[in-house]
Specification:
It contains 7 helices and no strands. The chain has helices at 8-15, 24-33, 36-44, 57-73, 75-84, 95-113, 137-172. The longest helix has 36 residues, at 137-172.
């Protein structure tokens, strides 16, 4: 699913309900950062597989861990923004929740792409793709859309609850 918002669906649907334990901004970014590889291949016309080494568990998950670490380092700067958008609760999260979110996001990306593309070798250096099954294309895209829809509904509920709490506190003052 290169350059599509479909990867945001599972990240929203899983990440928002788990935001007390999982750093949602890291999870969201990690779920799409792997597609920098096909983007570069297409933009620069590289003679390189569309889904190369970054679309393997061997590289994607460590990249996710590194992303999680950098997001942790940037947390103090971005935390006010995350709280405005209700992506974080009032509890501060540990480094482990950032790193886990990064690894989970990139790993989930590979799991969703692996059945769809012949050029992905998820267990590199093994060159086979045991999960390749294009018959699952509709199911995978549907899963992404439905989890995205549930994530949006959950987010709207968070916004509604937050607004309600602000107005109910304002009435009591």
């Amino acid at each position: 699913m290169p350059f599509t918002p479909f990867h945001f669906g599972p990240s929203l649907g899983l990440g928002l309900p788990l935001r007390k334990y999982l750093h949602v901004p890291t999870f969201l970014l990690a779920s799409v950062i792997v597609d920098i590889e096909p983007f570069l291949v297409l933009v620069f016309g590289l003679r390189y597989p569309l889904h190369g080494y970054l679309h393997t568990f061997l590289l994607a998950i460590p990249i996710g861990f590194i992303l999680g670490y950098f997001m942790f380092l940037l947390e103090e700067f971005f935390q006010p923004l995350y709280k405005v958008f209700l992506l974080e609760t009032s509890n501060s999260l540990s480094l482990k929740s950032f790193i886990f979110a990064g690894g989970l996001g990139t790993g989930l990306h590979i799991l969703l792409d692996t059945p769809l593309y012949t050029d992905i070798t998820p267990f590199y250096p093994i060159t086979a793709n045991p999960f390749y099954n294009p018959a699952l294309t509709l199911e995978i895209y549907s899963l992404c859309v439905w989890t995205g829809a549930l994530g949006i509904i959950y987010y709207l509920a968070l916004l509604g609850l937050s607004t309600y709490r602000k107005f109910s506190k304002g009435d009591k003052s």
